[in-house]
Design a protein that fits this description.
Largest sheet: 5 strands, mixed
Structural class: alpha+beta
Strand content: 15-25%
Oligomer: single chain
Shape: globular
Helix content: 25-40%
Order of helices and strands: HHHHHEEEHEEHH
Number of helices: 8
Number of strands: 5
């Protein structure tokens, strides 16, 4: 078997799963589109994620690695919540997850994987540091990480719990919130994922505009997206 050698980005990344599952044609439409330049928000997110991983791996506080309190205070809150979720269990940090055999385009890197004895995957934790876009714990990105992790490490008999830790965006359930997948729910998600991956490979795959257009590389030149009436409520977040 050949070793898995990832490219810089997965063709069907977990972070964009909501888009390519709902709009399979977005993959073909995005080919050849120059990548968007980095933004201060993306740079900040990368910096904080690196600090988050370092603190978890080395047992540090946020203030040990980031001097700016504007970043260090919410990062410490995220660390406190994450450590409470881990609760002394075995973890892997920034874990690269290889593709499932019949979906070679789908792979990614999970922030935190949590294991119950005997080292079966029981939880996925994802840090979201943005303050404008609220992310729910049932986000498809985390479910995909769970499926990839379960295929590699095995799954807890109780299923999988996905956690979003988002310290700078208000939510009724607080900065840390969870969603539980039982085994049937994970099987259903795997079927959805397989069908969507196959759909993206078809020539002329359907382009279906929706909220997932926001971060699509092709949205400025996509005729289906441009055809959506520009009303105050239509894709107001795009």
């Amino acid at each position: 078997m050949n070793a898995f050698v990832p490219s810089a980005h997965a063709p069907l990344s977990p972070s964009s799963a909501t888009r390519w599952i709902n709009c399979p044609g977005s993959i073909e439409a995005s080919k050849g589109v120059p990548p968007a330049p980095s933004s201060p928000y993306a740079d900040e997110g990368s910096r904080v994620h690196e600090a988050f991983a370092r603190c978890l791996l080395e047992g540090r506080t946020a203030a040990d690695v980031i001097a700016d309190p504007y970043l260090a205070v919410p990062l410490q809150e995220a660390l406190d919540h994450t450590r409470r979720i881990i609760a002394g269990r075995a973890v892997l940090i920034e874990q690269r997850l290889h593709p499932i055999d019949d979906m070679p385009e789908v792979w990614g890197t999970a922030d935190v994987l949590v294991f119950d004895p005997p080292r079966r995957l029981s939880a996925v934790i994802d840090l979201k540091f943005g303050s404008n876009i609220l992310v729910e714990a049932n986000a498809l990105q985390l479910g995909v990480y769970g499926l990839l992790g379960a295929r590699r490490f095995g799954l807890s008999q109780d299923g999988l719990t996905t956690w979003i830790v988002q310290p700078r965006c208000a939510h009724p359930e607080g900065p840390a919130r969870s969603h539980h997948y039982d085994i049937p729910a994970l099987r259903a998600l795997l079927s959805t994922l397989r069908a969507a991956a196959m759909a993206t490979r078809r020539q002329g795959a359907a382009r279906i505009p929706g909220p997932w257009c926001r971060f699509c590389p092709a949205w400025p030149v996509c005729p289906e997206r441009q055809a959506v009436p520009r009303t105050p409520s239509a894709f107001s977040h795009v």
